[in-house]
Amino acid sequence: MPAGAFMLCRGRRCLVVGVSAEYTAIDVSGVPGVGVGDTVTIVGDDGGETVSVEDVAGQLGAPSAAYWLVGVRNVPIRYLRGSP
Questions:
Q1: Residue 38: how many CB atoms within 10 A of its CB?
Q2: Are residues 42 and 51 in contact, defined by beta-carbon separation less than 8 angstroms?
Q3: Residue 63 falls within a domain, yes or no?
Q4: For residues 48-58, b (16+ Cβ closer than 10 Å) or e, as one string?
Q5: pTM exceeds 0.85 for this model
Q6: Does position 26 have pLDDT exceeding 90, yes or no?
């Protein structure tokens, strides 16, 4: 993962520090009260922060946002409307 890639946890940007075939590790050291089972947002809104599809494509160096979708086939996806 390129430097500067991030995901959101509890409304905070968390740097991606490692990626394997099945897992991604993020630095949550700056997130107060974080714990196992907390939601991590790859694309979408969390608190006052947003990660767009274009952000993810840029992090991957992809020419189009559609390219990154190939890598998330095994990730469970939940679509949420409104506040949880």
A1: 11
A2: yes
A3: yes
A4: ebebeeebbbe
A5: no
A6: yes
